[in-house]
């Protein structure tokens, strides 16, 4: 009996579980470009184009290897425009009695598959290095799910940068050598732009005709097949990895990439695998081309943080998306959709996001995420924005990063304290503040940096929750030590900022 083998747009890997379980001579691979997936949130046009172009090329590659592929294009009049609808249509067409699927990275899609009036066998996505079962076993009985301890287990499991049972260099973490402040000499060769070929050009025209979401589609710079993704990986390792560690938290106006890898979209849709990426980095370190701090810092992000947040997503389940531990309810300000602002850092981060569908982790965490948290924006709105606007955003990785790390909506599952800061951090790590309408050194008044005002307002309104936190006690002592009139002025200034946000005025 024929089975349908579902391959989703972020599962473009030859050995993905559903393909491995299929019979090439009998089964039919189903791939579908559907409007429902492009509009479940208003995805960035470049993200939609990347996925559609990569899907089309992957389907052709499968056919060249002897697979029978039923491919539905977005503009096909017969397309039902939902994954479920396309599976039912293809089941009737081929007389299929079962669907093989690899577990999707969104709970919504998994629920839709489970509700199909067809038998569906969902296989674990074993492209990850830590299985769900192993992560659950690691998490069981722990009071705190600290990423550092998980990371050490993954180092031992993979053998990456290990000398026997000890970490290379005698320590697990080289953070103290990394994360230097922004300086003009940080500029490195810009990641290569991949010129659109005929397939990509066709997709770009289709996306322009069908979608009007936030974000610029052109110029489109992404690789859309495995050959291109491998080229992007090689270029990063050779040209930017040596400085990656020390520059990873820096921000410079007009410089989107610095020494970052910019390969997360390829990892997250399947064009690259996590182990091959880490092995390439480890090999460069072993050859003496890369400092140990840079190599370790990168590998930690992949086998540590990336695997960890995926485990949290699987462990906590769909209810995780509804977390709101701090009770925040404010609407997402218009600046996130390109509205006018006087804050240079927000303008830079959002503008880059609009133009590229990309911003590095500190721009996301300590600029746009920090501002949303300090302002008390509803975490579900922040989650939807991040899922919408970034090319590499998929729920399994985006939701824990946003709801847990960025917005503290999970109450501290991912971190023992919220990631909040005043403008001083942004001033230290970037060159934004010099050209800003606001003055980062001013603590009160109309020219005071909104981050300064909102930081203390956040601490004050959440005093009962955080005053006993050992990592935040010092800041409460600083706040309490301020003169009463100064504290009142700070809070009044913050309330004025929040009132402007609520009225839709420029901040």
UniProtKB/TrEMBL annotation:
Highest taxon in the source lineage: Bacteria
Stored Pfam families: DPRP
InterPro entries per record: Crypto/Photolyase_FAD-like_sf (IPR036134), PhrB-like (IPR007357), Rossmann-like_a/b/a_fold (IPR014729), UV-DNA_repair_photolyase (IPR052551)
PANTHER family linked to this entry: SLR1343 PROTEIN (PTHR38657)
Protein name: Cryptochrome/photolyase family protein
């Amino acid at each position: 009996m024929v089975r349908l083998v579902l391959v989703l747009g972020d599962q473009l890997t030859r050995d993905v579980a559903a393909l491995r379980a299929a019979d090439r001579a009998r089964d039919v691979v189903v791939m579908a470009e559907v409007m429902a997936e492009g509009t479940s949130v208003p995805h960035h046009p470049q993200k939609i184009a990347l996925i559609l172009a990569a899907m089309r090329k992957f389907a052709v590659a499968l056919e060249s290897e002897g697979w029978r592929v039923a491919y539905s294009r977005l503009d096909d009049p017969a397309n039902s425009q939902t994954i479920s609808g396309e599976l039912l249509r293809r089941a009737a067409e081929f007389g299929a009695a079962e669907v093989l699927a690899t577990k999707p990275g969104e709970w919504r899609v998994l629920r839709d598959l489970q509700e199909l009036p067809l038998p569906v066998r969902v296989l674990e996505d074993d492209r990850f290095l830590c299985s769900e079962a192993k992560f659950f076993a690691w998490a069981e009985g722990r009071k705190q799910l600290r990423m550092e301890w998980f990371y050490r287990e993954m180092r031992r499991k993979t053998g990456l940068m290990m000398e026997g049972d000890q970490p290379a260099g005698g320590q697990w973490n080289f953070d103290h050598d990394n994360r230097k402040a922004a300086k003009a000499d940080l500029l490195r060769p810009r990641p290569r732009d991949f010129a659109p070929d005929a397939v990509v050009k066709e997709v770009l025209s289709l996306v322009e005709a069908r979608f009007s979401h936030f974000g610029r589609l052109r110029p489109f710079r992404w690789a859309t097949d495995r050959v291109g993704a491998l080229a992007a990986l090689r270029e990063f390792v050779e040209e930017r990895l040596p400085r990656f560690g020390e520059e990873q938290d820096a921000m410079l106006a007009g410089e989107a990439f610095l020494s970052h890898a910019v390969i997360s979209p390829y990892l997250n849709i399947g064009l690259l695998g996590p182990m091959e990426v880490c092995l390439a980095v480890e090999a460069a370190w072993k050859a003496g081309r890369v400092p140990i701090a840079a190599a370790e810092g990168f590998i930690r992000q992949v086998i540590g943080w990336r695997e960890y947040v995926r485990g949290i997503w699987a462990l906590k389940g769909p209810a995780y998306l509804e977390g709101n531990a701090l009770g925040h309810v404010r609407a997402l300000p218009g600046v996130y959709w390109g509205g006018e602002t006087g804050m240079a850092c927000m303008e830079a981060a959002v503008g880059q996001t609009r133009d590229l569908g990309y911003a590095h982790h500190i721009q996301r965490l300590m600029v746009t995420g920090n501002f949303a948290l300090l302002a008390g924006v509803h975490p579900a709105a922040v989650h939807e924005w991040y899922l919408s606007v970034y090319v590499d955003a998929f729920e399994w990785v985006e939701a824990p990063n946003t709801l847990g790390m960025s917005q503290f909506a999970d109450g501290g599952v991912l971190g023992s304290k919220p990631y909040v800061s005043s403008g001083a951090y942004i001033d230290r790590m970037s060159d934004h503040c010099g050209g800003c309408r606001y003055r980062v050194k001013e603590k009160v008044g109309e020219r005071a940096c909104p981050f300064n005002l909102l930081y203390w307002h956040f601490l004050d309104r959440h005093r009962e929750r955080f005053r006993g936190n050992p990592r935040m006690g010092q800041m409460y002592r600083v706040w309490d030590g301020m003169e009463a009139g100064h504290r009142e002025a700070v809070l009044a200034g913050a309330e004025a900022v929040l009132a402007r946000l609520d009225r839709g005025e420029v901040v």
